[in-house]
Amino acid sequence: MRNRPRLRPLVAATLCLAALAPGCGARVEKPSARADRPVMLTNCGERVTYDKVPERVVTNDVGITELMFALGLEDRMAGFAMPDDKGDLRRVPWKDGYDEVPWLSKDQLTAETVLEARADLVLAGWNYGFREDAGFTPDALRELGIASYVLTESCRNGRTDTARGIMPPLEALYTDLTNLGKLFGVEERAAALVAGFRRQIADVRAKAPARAPKVFLYDSGEDQPFTSGRYAAPDQIISAAGGVNLLHDVADSWTTTGWETVVERDPDVIVICDYGDVSAERKKDFLLSYAPLRDVSAIRHRRIFVLDYADLVESPRNPSAIARLGTYLRAVDDGRAGGRRS
C-alpha cells in the first residue's frame, strides 16, 4: 500500500466499543511484569523469539501505529513515522496516543531515524516501511541490534518476490493484536478487542443483502488502477459488509489490474480510498468521466462510496469501515443509493 495516509474526522462514537480505545473509558490492562522472560511468536510463518518486552517501539504508518494505541501501549513507544497529509486526528478514538507519542518523521522510516530514537523494536510491514531497495529490512535492523515485527497483512506469500498476504485480512488483524498482546503482556486487552470486533462484524454480516453486489476498490492510478486482491484489508471489509471484491481471485494484497478487467466484471459499486495528493472528489470525477467505464453499472448509477486510507489498511478501524460500508450496500440493495447520470 502507498505510504501517504489521509485521515478525515471520524465520529468517535462509531468506533468506541466497550473494549476499544483507552480514551473511550475502557479499563486499560497494565502490562505484566515479565521484561526478562523471552516471548516466542509466529510472525509471517516464522517462529521469532523476543528476549525482552520492548520499551522503545517505533511504528510506521497510521494503521500500524493505531494497533499499539488500541492496546494502550503508548508508554512503550519511542515514536512513529507518518506523512503530513494525515488529516484531522482530534476526533479519532486514539487522540491521546497521537498527543503523547513523538512524531519522528513525515517520510518513510530509515535506519538513522530508528537509531536516533534508540528503538528496540520496529513495527512495520513490507511496503509499509520495510523495503528492499533502501535496505530497510528486518535483517538489516537485526544487524543493528534492533528487533522487528512484520505486519501480517504484508507478509510475503512466496508466489512471487513481491506478492503479499498469507491469511484472510481480518485474521491478519486478529493475529497481530493477539501477538502484540502476548509480547507486551496485555493478552486480556487484546482478546477483548478481538472479541468486540468479531461481534461488531457478525452483526453487520447478519444484515447483509441477499444478493451480494460486486465492489471494486479504487485506490489510485489512471493508466492502470491500483486495487485490492484477496489478501488486503478491503477484500474482507467488502465481503463482511455484504459485497464481493471484484479482484477476490487475485492472490495478492495491494496490486494493479487493467481497466478492461474492471469493465468486463462490471462492478455494482466502486469504493474510493481517500488519501494522498489526489482528493476523493478528483478520483470520483475521473471515474465518472473516463470513457471506457461509461457502461459500468457503478458509473451509470453513480454508486461510489468513499472510505479513508486508515479504514482500508489493516488497522483497528476496519470493523467500523465494515459497518459503514454495510449500511451503504444495504441502501444499494434497497434502491436508495446512487442514481442514473443526468
UniProtKB/TrEMBL annotation:
The organism's place on the tree of life at top rank: Bacteria
CDD domains found in the cross-reference section: TroA_a (cd01148)
Gene3D superfamilies on file: Nitrogenase molybdenum iron protein domain
Residue span, Fe/B12 periplasmic-binding domain: 56-336
Keyword Kinase: no
Coiled-coil features, chain-numbered ranges: none
Keyword Signal: yes
PROSITE patterns in alphabetical order: FE_B12_PBP
Pfam family, one: Peripla_BP_2
Stretch forming the signal peptide: 1-26
Keywords: Signal
InterPro entries listed in its UniProt record: ABC_Transporter_SBP (IPR050902), ABC_transptr_periplasmic_BD (IPR002491)
Protein family (similarity comment): Belongs to the bacterial solute-binding protein 8 family.
The protein, known as: Iron transporter
Protein's organism: Streptomyces pharetrae CZA14
